[in-house]
Structure formats: C-alpha cells, structure tokens
Amino acid sequence: MSTQDITRAEIRRPSQKRSQARFEAILDGAEKLLENLPPSAISIHAIAAEVGISPPSIYHFFPEPQLVFSALAERYLKRFEAGVLSEAPKDVKSWQELQTLQYRAGQKWFNEHPAARQVLLEGPAWSSDIRLQDLDSNLVTAGRSIELMTQTFVMPEIPDLHDRLVEIIVINDAIWSLSIHRYGLITDEMEEQARRARIAYSRTFLPEYLPLRADREDAR
C-alpha cells in the first residue's frame, strides 16, 4: 500500500446527502480561507468558524487539517482536467503553438483560482499526499496533450512520448510555482520563461515540424 493510500484512507467520505453537503461545505470554507491565508495558518478551528459548525464535525471527516487540503487538491485537479483546452483549436499551425495555447489556458485557470494555486502549485512542497495526486494528474494531462496533438497533426512514432510530456509538466510547474512564490500569481513574464523551457525540452524528442492532418488542412 502506498503512502497516498494510507493518507486518503483517513478521510471519512460520507454516503448520505446531508453528510455530503457538510463535507463539501467544509471544503468551501477552507477554500475561502485560502484566498487570504497560507495553509499553514489554517486550523480545523478556523475552518469550523468559517463554516459555522463545530470542530468535532470537521474532525469526523478530516482528523488532520492537511487532509482537508488533500480533498481540495482532488477537487481542483478534477476541475482543472475537465476545464482546460479540451479541444484543439482549428487554426493551429504548429505543435509549438498548440502547446503554448494549452499551457496559457492553464495559466489563466490558475490565476483565476487563488486557492487552487496554493494547494496544487505550492501544496506538493509540504504534502506528500498532494504531491502524489499531482503526479497522477500529470499523467492525465500528458495523455490529453497527446490527444490534442493527434487530433491536429500526423504524429510519428515517438518512444516514451507520454513520459516526456509528463517531464515537461514538471518543468513547467517548477517555474509557475516560482512565479507564485515571488509574485502571488503566474505572471506573463514567468509564463514566457516557462514556454521557452517547454519548447526547448520538447525539441529534444519532437521534430521541428509536424504536418497537419488532412482534415485540418481542408479546414484552412
């Protein structure tokens, strides 16, 4: 059993609607606190005061504050995976442009969700459970990148492409996290630095030019 399995097992996930509503309200309260406070400053008692319920009611679901943030990370990752560039734009002409659009959509999403920035881009530094969730999500995002590329381009056989794209996400997240540490959000200047790093690494395994699929050529 992994560390992730042990940590997640400590969260008591409700099955009844009333309990589910309280579970979600706890996460909503923690999310609101995260807009102004770092996770280290948020206690179970602070969440209880924000939500208007007793601390034991929160301990019933989350024995430790960290588990609240773990559940929030799960919520945010699902929203991120569902909401960022699900279809390849029809006027894209190069993989460099497609990759840039995909990540800039991610930049926009994170900048619009301050609590998610703290949990997902800073959380892995202080929570091994969130780190494991983040790595699992990277696998999903890398797979989505392959789908977007395959929708748009005639793809050659590239060994370990999925692994390489996961590595790009890790490189990118390091620069985005640095931007958040310095400026509180992902600035356009730091996103440009991340873009250069992504393109440079991608060129070690992708050809400079990928031909468009026939249906994409016809649509131009």
- SSE pattern: HHHHHHHHHHH
How many domains comprise the coordinates?
2
Summarize the biggest pleated sheet: none
The low-confidence runs, each spanning 5 or more residues with pLDDT under 50, are 1-9
Number of helices: 11
- Structural class determined from secondary elements: mainly alpha
Global morphology: elongated
Task: Give the CA-CA distance, first to last residue.
Answer: 51 Å
Overall residue-averaged pLDDT value: 88
Instruction: Count every beta strand, where a strand is a DSSP E run of 2 or more residues.
Output: 0
CA-based gyration radius: 20 Å
Helical content class: over 70%
Tell me the strand percentage band: under 5%
Task: Give a written overview of the molecule.
The chain is mainly alpha-helical and 220 residues long. The chain folds into two domains: 3-66, Homeodomain-like (Arc Repressor Mutant, subunit A), CATH 1.10.10; 71-219. It has eleven helices and no strands. It has helices spanning 3-9, 17-34, 44-51, 55-61, 65-83, 95-112, 114-122, 128-152, 161-183, 188-202, 214-219. Helix 1 packs across helix 8 (128-152) and helix 2 (17-34) packs across helix 5. The longest helix has 25 residues, at 128-152. It is elongated and about 60 Å long.
